């Protein structure tokens, strides 16, 4: 009797891509090329806009620029490698490419969280708090922590030999879904690398929306009093209003406009970013 040696079964949630026809392969390549061009152009323009305009060189835009650099890496490095893989097969050092791909995804999600947290401090806390938290030193430390965070999440997958070329997805990513690598993905990469910063981003925007509504209610309560004083020929709110009313009214109107514009822009950016990540992975 011969001994039975059971080999680990490779599992991939995406089935049916290992028998791509030339037409399907060409369509996927065209989609990847379009994603590469749009992502490369958009993120390059974002970086150039910040570099060329000193007014845009704020701490929040520092994180926006970092996000654009990470997305530019996806668009100009990882997507072309994926295009090469669709047509020619596995590129060299595919495990390293897979680790870089996953690290950039984690960094993108972390960058979105840092942008949201920056907005939360600026809008929901005092400006003194913002100046105390966001110094050049603290911003640089936060970027280093983001990189160390992403590497700490991704690099242990090498010990499970979970990276490589997938003949089913035609991409350098997860290939070995043995028990240990699967447990690591479910318990570490998914919750810590994705869900936790995404939850933090959603929480920041929830508090921002709450602040918007609070400012709107305050403005509605103050509007009749302001109209009466304007009708009486007095425009000096500092003379007739308390310091708290002056501060709330002067800041609320500006913040309301800025927040609504920022939320519209950020919603579009999140949708575009999600589509880019989904296409590249």
Commentary on this structure:
With 281 residues, the protein is an all-alpha fold. It contains eight helices and two strands; from the N terminus they run H-H-H-H-H-E-E-H-H-H. It has helices at residues 22-52, 59-88, 94-124, 127-133, 136-154, 179-231, 237-240, 243-280; strands spanning 163-166, 171-174. Strands 1-2 form a two-stranded antiparallel ribbon. Strand 1 and strand 2 (171-174) form a beta hairpin. The chain is elongated. 25% of the residues are buried.
How does the SSE layout of this entry go?
Elements: H1 22-52, H2 59-88, H3 94-124, H4 127-133, H5 136-154, E1 163-166, E2 171-174, H6 179-231, H7 237-240, H8 243-280
Antiparallel strand pairs: 1-2
Helix pairs in contact: 1-2, 2-3, 2-8, 3-5, 3-6, 5-6, 6-8
According to DSSP, the number of beta strands is 2
Largest sheet properties? 2 strands, antiparallel
Distance between the termini: 46 Å
Give the uncertain stretches in residue-range form.
1-17, 235-249, 276-281
Keywords:
single chain, 281 residues, mainly alpha, two-stranded antiparallel ribbon, 8 helices, disordered C terminus
Q: Can I get a quick summary?
A:
The chain contains 8 helices and 2 strands; from the N terminus they run H-H-H-H-H-E-E-H-H-H.
């Amino acid at each position: 009797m011969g001994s039975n040696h059971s080999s680990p079964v490779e599992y991939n949630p995406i089935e049916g891509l290992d028998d791509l026809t030339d037409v399907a392969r060409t369509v996927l390549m065209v989609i990847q090329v379009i994603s590469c061009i749009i992502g490369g152009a958009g993120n390059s323009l974002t970086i150039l806009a910040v570099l060329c305009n000193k007014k845009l060189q704020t701490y929040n835009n520092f994180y926006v620029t970092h996000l654009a650099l990470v997305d530019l890496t996806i668009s100009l490095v990882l997507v072309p490698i994926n295009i090469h893989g669709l047509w020619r097969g596995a590129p060299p050092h595919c495990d390293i490419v897979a680790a870089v791909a996953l690290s950039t995804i984690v960094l993108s999600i972390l960058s979105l969280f840092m942008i949201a947290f920056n907005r939360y401090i600026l809008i929901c806390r005092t400006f003194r708090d913002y100046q105390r938290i966001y110094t050049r030193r603290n911003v640089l430390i936060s970027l280093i922590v983001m990189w160390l965070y992403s590497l700490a999440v991704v690099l242990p997958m090498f010990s499970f030999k979970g990276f490589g070329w997938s003949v089913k997805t035609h991409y350098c990513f997860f290939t070995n879904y043995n028990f240990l690598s699967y447990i690591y993905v479910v318990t570490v990469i998914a919750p810590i690398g994705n869900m936790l910063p995404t939850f933090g981003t959603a929480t920041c925007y929830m508090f921002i929306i709450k602040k918007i509504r609070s400012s709107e209610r305050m403005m509605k309560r103050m509007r009749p009093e302001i109209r009466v004083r304007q009708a009486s020929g007095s425009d000096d709110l500092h003379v007739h209003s308390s310091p708290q009313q002056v501060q709330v009214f002067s800041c609320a109107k500006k913040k309301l406009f800025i927040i609504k514009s920022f939320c519209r822009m950020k919603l579009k950016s999140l949708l575009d970013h999600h589509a880019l990540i989904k296409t590249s992975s």
